[in-house]
Amino acid sequence: MSSSVSRKRVRKDPATRRAEIVGTAAAIALAEGLECITLRRIAEELAVRPGLISHYFPAADDLVAEAFGSAATGELDALVPAGRPGETPTLRLVRFLARTTGDAYDTMSRLWINARHLSRYRPELRERVVGQEAAWRGRLGALVQEGVDAGEFHPADVSVAVVQILVVLDGLGAHANTGTAEHPAAVSGMAAATAENALGLPAGTLAAPAEGAVPAVRSAADGESAPASARTTATATAAPAVTSGSASGSGPGSGSGSEPAPVSRTESSESSEPSAP
After folding, report:
1. What phi and psi values does residue 217 have, to the nearest 5 degrees?
2. pTM of model > 0.90
3. What whole-number distance in Å separates Cα of residue 225 and Cα of residue 227?
4. C-alpha triplet 63, 67, 68: angle, nearest 5°
């Protein structure tokens, strides 16, 4: 005699469900590429009907743009977080530069390369890329201006100095698809050297601290802590931010980061989420 146990479906509130969808899409983007994001694929990953995904994102291109934005914002928040009490702009810049290496940073660089390429054909994604680049310039520019106000930095022009730093990071990040492990110190240290020159600092001022000296930072992708040397993939899980993205040709170089990281996935009342078609 067969028996069946009815399981009551637990619904999630719209904000939580949307964040879950974006986080899942961001994780796929970081692992496989933005081209792999489809409404059906996300539905399969979350074990829901495709109609539920299309309720939140009628067009796949909208979800692709949102996933990239979430991941890029997570990276920006991880690489250039708000300053801590008593922390100088110089120390914050040293920590930022130290985080622009490592597997997580390269993963985000690949996502930036991917997004910039696809943005040629997808208006929604292009708009998001432009917004993220502007966010990067704004966040790093604010840090540099703090250093100027504190008498620590002496750039001829703040905006030009920021672009110089980001362009070098973009150039280095552009190699993420082919491997960066063989870069000699003179190459891997180009970003710091460029920043020192642009900000009127003595050579070596922004050199990476000894291994272990940089505290762990939150991974944008899953909320777990990752070595500060890694460019948190920002929201990979987009959500969560997987950590990383940036202004480089692959990431931050142009400047990026504008979408807020997805909210944590908390279950909510059953009636709050629209039923799947």
Report:
1. -125, 160
2. no
3. 7
4. 120
